[in-house]
Amino acid sequence: MDAATLVLDEATKVYPGQDEPAVDRLSLEVGAGEICVLVGPSGCGKTTAMRMVNRMIDITSGDILIDGASVRDRDPAELRRQIGYAIQQIGLFPHLTIAENVATVPKLLRWDRDRIRARVDELLALVQLDPDETRDRYPAQLSGGQRQRVGVARALAVDPPLMLMDEPFGAIDPINREKLQNEFLRLQREIRKTIVFVTHDIDEAIKMGDRIAILRKGGRLAQYAPPAELLMEPADRFVEDFVGADRALKRLALQRVRDIDLWRAPLARAGDPVASVRAQTAACDLPYPLLVDEAGRPLGWLSEAALAGETVTADLVSDPQPIVELDDVLRDALSDLLQHESQYGPVVDARGAVAGVLSIEAIGHALRDSDAVPRAADAAVEG
Amino acid sequence: MVASAVAALTAPLAQVQLRDRSGGDAGCVADDGLCPGWIADNFDRYVDPLVQHVYLVLASVAIGFAISFALALVAHRHRWMIAPIVQVTGILYTLPSIAVFFLLLPLTGRGSLTAIVALVAYSLLIIFRNITTGLDNVPEEARDAGRGMGLTDRQLLWRVELPLALPEIMAGLRIATTTTVGLATLAFFAGAGGLGGQIFADINFKSNVVVAGGLAVLLAAVLDAAILLAQRAITPWTRARAA
Hints:
The structure holds two protein chains of two kinds.
Chain A: E1 6-13, E2 23-30, E3 35-39, H1 46-53, E4 61-66, E5 69-70, H2 76-80, E6 83-87, H3 98-102, H4 104-108, H5 113-126, H6 131-134, H7 144-155, E7 162-166, H8 174-191, E8 194-199, H9 202-208, E9 211-216, E10 220-225, H10 227-232, H11 237-243, H12 247-251, E11 267-268, H13 274-282, E12 290-292, E13 298-302, E14 316-318, E15 324-325, H14 330-339, E16 344-348, E17 354-359, H15 360-369, H16 372-382
Parallel strand pairs in A: 3-8, 3-9, 6-7, 7-8, 11-12, 15-16
Antiparallel strand pairs in A: 1-2, 1-4, 4-5, 9-10, 12-13, 13-14, 16-17
Chain B: H1 2-14, H2 26-30, H3 36-42, H4 47-77, H5 82-94, H6 97-108, H7 112-136, H8 140-148, H9 153-183, H10 195-201, H11 206-234
Helix pairs in contact in B: 4-7, 4-9, 4-10, 5-7, 6-7, 7-9, 8-9, 9-11, 10-11
């Protein structure tokens, strides 16, 4: 099934006997195949907003449209079978085996036995579990991380065009959470579902979201924007505080080394004429020549003595560490530089050849210049 | 009417001295002792009361379970009904059984029916409470996930909630069954026979009391074990632990 579009149109929930709405005229558009993260402090109505989509909670006013059709006109049980549902507590059925858990919705839809069996194995493999080992076990026999994967597999069982995920990695320890997040993002690149993802963790929101909706108390939308825009142009004080004082640093997690203007350094091989190296140096950002091997891989920074004669000798002043890759996120690359107490380091491409030099100064430039980026992205989305 | 009911109740006691003590070692029997020879010779006279006892227990627990189960399902949907049901079944549970037989006699007469009605009344509280507790103990997240995946209330009940409540439900059945085995020894007051009739028929004779009473204890143990085995067979997940 293809991904669905989701529109919340002034969706409002007022619980009986309460004056203040839990969700107040929330309007959002989620494009097909996008992850929309609902984030905010506790009591901001983010879970309520998510549960309105599959009518676990019925809206008081406004409307919610999936692929243009209102959820109000659908039978709740039938609607829910077509929307993947994963929650923090996972909610695996303890009395059913893993295979039976994953097969819950296919059974409701009366798939035949062979199709169910094949699908269960396919899904378990998809979430990196060994079908032969896990199929016949009970949830109590699995680790927390494994159970979480089963929960995701179960939510994906009938290939729903829309998924709701309420803090799906919230109960996992930090190391495994990061692993599951990465795995899920990789999975999402394959399956391209439309996903509503609830979290209270702004870092998780920035990592997972194509767009982030920040809600404040009373279920009011504070800002709905891609992560970069949220970090660079918070709509108001509330968003600024929620995103955190270190939002400039958080932005580093959004950009990769290949996204910024790298410095150039003179490259030299042993035996090259010194004159040509000196000529190169004049045109480069960095005055220090870098020695590379035949394949262009960095060997180290050359000393003055290496350039004393007619041709370059392999006389190094220091090794080339840290070497960063074009696909590293800036945050990790900066961390590498700081750890090596170095101002700059060679950047290599997928084959290991030097593609430029990353310096702390270049990162600083990128942060200052990237104000222009979200506006361009915005125009593309709205236009 | 009351006089005839009292007469009916006391009728079995009048037979006490008429019991046959033939067979076995005459000296031991005359001393009201525990006489293996007599037990061996007379064991067959306990078979019919035992069968009747089993019948009373199984019929009562089965009917009691059916009524409690229906009540529990209704109360599961309409939670305000739990308190009144517990109160009413609680009163039934505390009524002295002899009094219940006495009150029922004009309505249902002497015989198994009266006994079963009374025994059912006793089992209701135990079974109802266990089913309700079992349903209440179903993890909320399992319920939420089930609903979120599109199970209807009925599917949720039969596929998730009741299976998960099985350990408590079976525990309730075990208590109800053992209790009923004991209570059914009074059924002969309602003219329903059973092992109790044997015990009271010659209550001074050790051999008689030990055999009849022993059979009742044995019956309770066997039924309890049978239900426990059934429970283990239908709840394999409760023994699944992290490997």
